[in-house]
Amino acid sequence: MSNKVKNHALRAGTITAGTALLLLMSSPAFALTRDDGDDPGPGLSVVQTLGLYVATPIVLFLIIAGLVMLGDKSRKAKKS
Fold it and tell me: Could you tell me the pTM of the whole model?
């Protein structure tokens, strides 16, 4: 094996090991232990979750894109 291939393999192994170590260190070890005064409230339904994390960002993206396109069209109309 050439020296270049060895260096790439070493770099890939180091990055993989480092990523795995960081993921293990950030795992929620005590997530099930309740703190004093912890009151999480009711969970979200599937429809609420999809609306909050899927539909809302898409709608916001479409609104912002529409406003940008309207602004661009009005600027082009003024130039001609």
Answer: 0.50
* Cα distances (angstroms) measured from residue 78 to each of 68, 69, 71: 16, 14, 11
Q: Mapping DSSP to helix (H, G, I), strand (E, B) and coil, where does residue 74 land?
A: helix
Per DSSP, 53 falls in state: I
Cα-to-chain-centroid distance, residue 26: 16
**Each residue of 11-69: pLDDT tens digit?**
999 999 999 988 888 777 666 777 777 788 899 999 999 999 999 999 999 999 999 99
10 assigned to some structural domain: yes
For the chain, how big is the Rg over CA atoms in Å? 25
Q: How many domains does the chain have?
A: 1
